[in-house]
Amino acid sequence: MPPPKDVVKIAIQMVGAIPQLIDLQQTKPLASVLKDVCDTWSLPNPERYALQYADGRQTYITESNRRDIKNGSILRLTVSPDQEADRLYAGILSNNVDVKTDSLKKLAGLSQDVTFAQEFISRNGLKQIYSIVEEGNDTGEMLAHTLKAFTELMEHDFVSWENLSTVFIKKIVSYVNMNAVDAAIQQLSLSILENMVPTSRLLFELVKKEVTLDRLLTHLQATNAELQLKAMALLIALLLSATDAERRDMMDYLREKNLRQFIHKNIIHSSEPLGDEMAHYLYVLQSVSLNLCEPRMKTSMDPYSQEQRDLLQSLRQTAFESESEAPAGSFSHERRRSLCAKEFRKLGFMNNSNPAEDLRRAPPGLLALDNMVYFSRNTPNAYSRFVLENSSREDKHECPFARSSIQLTLILCEILHIGEPCSETAQAFYPMFFGQDHFFEELFCICIQLVNKTWKEMRATQEDFDKVMQVVREQITRTLSLKPTSLELFKTRVNALNYSEILKLRQTERLHQEETLAVPVLELREKLKPELLELIRQQRLLHLCEGTLFRKISSRRRQDKLWYCRLSPNHKVLHYGDVEEGVQSPPIESLPEKIPVADMKMLLVGKECPHTKEKSSGKQNKDVLELAFSIVHDMEEYCLNFIAPTRYEFCLWTDGLNVLLGKEMTSERTQTDLDVLLSMELKLRLLDLENINIPDNPPPIPKPPSNLNFCYDFSHAEQ
Predict the structure, then answer these.
(1) How many C-alpha atoms does 455 have within 13 Å on its Cβ side?
(2) d(C-alpha 644, C-alpha 562), whole Å
(3) CA nearest 70: which of 21, 9, 13, 29?
(4) For a designed S-S bond to 331, which of 300, 335, 493, 530 qualifies (C-beta 3.0 to 4.6 A apart)?
(5) Are residues 546 and 464 in the same domain?
(6) Claim to verify: residue 120 and residue 132 sit in the same structural domain
(7) Coil vs helix vs strand at 485
(8) Residue 452 to residue 458: CA distance in whole angstroms
(9) Which helix (H) or strand (E) holds 565?
(10) Which residues of the chain have pLDDT under 50?
């Protein structure tokens, strides 16, 4: 008798027959299992049949995936993939429009299954798909099914995108460029082109040439949200596949067309909620745009470049215009050099005789010079006020404009992650970025004035420079965390967060830290920990019961496919399955796949996960490594792989799974939540001791008295 793990209790259905309840022996060949099932229903030729899941994606059962079958699974006896592929291939060739349409519709559904796809492609089925598209005789519903089937078949990577003919590609492009085309066909065509662009330079150039940015902008302005999303996806694919020069040209053109303002008004502030996919594309667009600053950021100033020297001189001339207007002949060469050095010192350059030396550090390189020039040209009054105001202060108390600008540029680059590759999963973008064309430069203009304001509030000297910049960094990061919707709102909030407010926040945090470090408080913390950790465990399990929407991500592109996973209310089974876009919280009955918690053996995270080992280990996948985890089940043979949508979800899921496995919660979120709960509980417990010093040691217990004669003897009183 085989061990229990090799036997699965399942039900098998067939139309018009009584279902069979069988014990599926996993060691028994699938052909033998099919023969037994067919014999029970008196069906000849068992080789013409196959088993597939009755619910969900209805995947065919093969020797390679049969171990995924769980106790209680419902399977269906159906025509084998090779027989179905032959039938549908013949149906596509039919002259009967209804037969052809039905065949294409079924093909679009079945092509998601890798076994069927392999059979259909091996029969040269893609050639027939190409013919339908290239001939262009079929339109409407039939064409939509054809494009859907093509997309699903290509997902399996059996055929290279480079094998597509120019005629086929141009036909797909024509559906995107034509106005009188069904929206569903345009969406599928945009999706096909999006998949095509990253695969080769040749295809990128062809799509870029045939689908103009103007056409994509037209689709972005459509009222159809799905069409808008697909157009944005293709735009992002083109930007990511372009060279640096091409990307800069494309972004310049999009700026001329006011793309940012359109996104800010009609997408971010639309009445419809922003979906995860669109949020990711907006993040990528922001990242690509900001990374255009990277070359300047990494380039040191060349003291022999006349263009760069002219920019440097323009800073001096704008600030000290009246002094520079004196005729050239009125000063000797030495006197003029001395005057320039003095003016550069007033501008805050550390090396006033050769200010180019201050800009040799990269990063921030020439980007700091660009910011200073932008500030001086676009806000000349604020620039002159900054420089002249500090020129009149005592030497020790003047705020160095150039030195502050260089350091501030570096801080902004670090905060905005300029020079870092785009994340594959991130959705965090700044809404105010899309409300302004010259976002980085305008942000610098606000923040450099903040530096001067904070410098005065701190009554700082040159020795306090690093402290001031540290406060400014804190002001900027705290304000950005509030996600202001415009630069004006950012300016208002960051200026309201003055030095005294920062001191109050720091003092509150310090007092909280000090009061929690007293020995009696530490002892109380330790006593409260078990109860609060149990509360966190319950919260994690509750979150798993509510479930989370996960995305499937391939090495080729960010996928549109979604799946949902949730824990049963009795904490005994994990249910999961594919869902459609827009489904928020599917009922547990609609999730066909399941894993008993008792079968879970181990939790893997990061690089240990099998689905991260399949990917390249480049910097672009760093974020995927930080969000990846896997559940090992069935004697360490099979894994359910996850990529969390956010770090927050990653922490909650890994904690919850560790609780189910009887292990400690190890995420950083656990410590954060525990600290918050302990802080609240301690404050409530110590409320009556406010402004009372708590001694580190308990008061000494007095010695027992020499005699107890002071006690009253009731026995004598009774007598």
Answers:
(1) 24
(2) 12
(3) 9
(4) 335
(5) no
(6) yes
(7) coil
(8) 10
(9) strand 558-567
(10) 1-3, 324-325, 328, 557-559, 616-620
Largest alpha-carbon pair distance within the chain? 125
Distance of alpha carbon 292 from alpha carbon 686, whole angstroms? 53
pLDDT for the residue numbered 691: 62
pLDDT given for residue 617 in this prediction: 46
Final residue belonging to a domain, choices 60, 79, 98: 79
Q: Which helix (H) or strand (E) holds 130?
A: helix 125-135
Cα gap 632→609, rounded to integer Å: 10
Q: Tell whether 502 and 556 lie within a shared domain.
A: no
Phi and psi, residue 40, nearest 5°: -60, -40
Rounded to whole angstroms, how far apart are CA atoms 230 and 234?
6
pLDDT at 3: 46
Which of 158, 221, 219 is closest to 193 using CA atoms? 219
Q: Show the tokens assigned to 719.
A: 């007598």
- Verify that 15 and 35 share a domain, yes or no: yes
pLDDT of residue 548: 92
Residue 493: predicted pLDDT: 95
Sequence-distant (6+) residues with CB within 8 A of 293 are: 367, 413, 418, 440
Are the CB atoms for 364 and 413 separated by under 8 Å?
A: yes
CB 541 within 8 A of CB 656: yes
Residue 217's contacts (CB-CB under 8 Å, 6 or more residues apart) are 254, 257, 259, 262
Start-to-end C-alpha separation, the chain: 88
pLDDT at site 531: 93
Give the pairing type, strands 593-596 and 20-25.
unpaired
- 363: preceding bond cis by omega (within 30 degrees): yes
Residues 386, 416: one domain? yes
Q: Are 674 and 536 in contact (CB under 8 A)?
A: yes
Q: What is the pLDDT of residue 698?
A: 74
Q: Is the dihedral of CA 5, 6, 7, 13 positive or negative?
A: positive
Q: What is the dihedral of CA 712, 713, 718, 719, to 10 degrees?
A: -120
Range of the domain at 388: 298-320+335-510
Statement to judge: residues 587 and 480 lie in one domain: no
- The string over 635-651, giving b where at least 16 C-beta atoms fall within 10 Å of a residue's C-beta and e elsewhere, is eeebbbbbbbbebebbb
Number of other CB atoms surrounding residue 281 within 10 Å: 23
Tell me what pLDDT residue 506 has. Answer: 83
**Structural domain count of the chain:** 4
Structure tokens given for 520: 């009696």
